[in-house]
Design brief:
Blueprint (H helix, E strand, L loop, with lengths): L4 H8 L10 H27 L4 E5 L4 H15 L6 E5 L15 H6 L2 E4 L4 E3 L1 H10 L12 H21 L5 H12 L30
Parallel strand pairs: 1-2
Antiparallel strand pairs: 1-3, 3-4
Length: about 210
């Protein structure tokens, strides 16, 4: 039987002609493939993360938050199977569409986590669920009481509103404005008033703390 086509020619050992792409279409095609590949990687990473019992959305620019994240990571890595996924919302490629449509602003204003069944928990309940996942449920067990939880959430809310300033960073609204500007590809330009006068151009952010892998 005679072999035909590029696959068959490869099987026969006959060189297969290379088709050269044309002009700008080559660059565009490569860019599209790279973009699609990056997107596919993000989708796979999100799907893998959400398979665990709880997925924590945390602020990787927050020094105090990182201390707790690193503590929980250490506890979680010591157990099999691992039960917690950690997603840094401060990462440039954080995509709300992959994480229950929780926006950067929402996740910055109060802590969020996504449970394996797709439900979302916020505020102090997040901490209770996380500590339960690493065998320290007793730490937040008292917050199962509705009255205690309501009071704890009020205290947490006061902290959350000022946490960035209390940890040596800019006001939360400034951070959110910068993120919006970065997303638009124009740092600070959306802070101009009607006359075009710069009202709140933003400084370059400070060096980012690192989380333990």
């Amino acid at each position: 039987m005679r072999l035909q086509g590029p696959v068959q020619r490869m099987l026969r050992g006959t060189p297969v002609p290379t088709v050269q792409p044309c002009g700008a279409r080559s660059s565009s095609s490569t860019t599209n493939r790279n973009g699609s590949s990056s997107r596919a990687m993000l989708v796979r990473a999100a799907a893998s993360a959400l398979e665990r019992d709880i997925t924590l959305l945390y602020d990787g620019d927050c020094p105090l938050c990182l201390k707790e994240v690193n503590f929980l990571k250490g506890r979680d890595e010591a157990q099999d199977p691992r039960r917690i996924s950690f997603v840094d919302i401060s990462a440039a490629d954080y995509d709300p569409a992959l994480y229950a449509n929780i926006s950067f602003e929402s996740a910055m204003r109060k802590i969020h986590a996504i449970l394996k069944d797709g439900s979302i928990v916020t505020e102090v309940e997040v901490f209770r669920r996380l500590y339960e996942a690493v065998g320290l449920g007793w730490v937040y067990a008292i917050t199962k009481n509705a009255t205690v939880l309501a009071l704890a959430n009020r205290v947490y809310g006061l902290w959350a509103d000022k946490r960035t300033e209390l940890t040596g960073r800019e006001a939360l609204d400034v951070i959110l404005t910068r993120r919006n500007a970065l997303n638009e590809g124009k740092m600070g330009s959306n802070c101009r008033d009607e006359d075009g006068v710069i009202a709140c151009d933003l400084p370059v952010p400070a060096a980012k703390p690192t989380a333990t892998k």
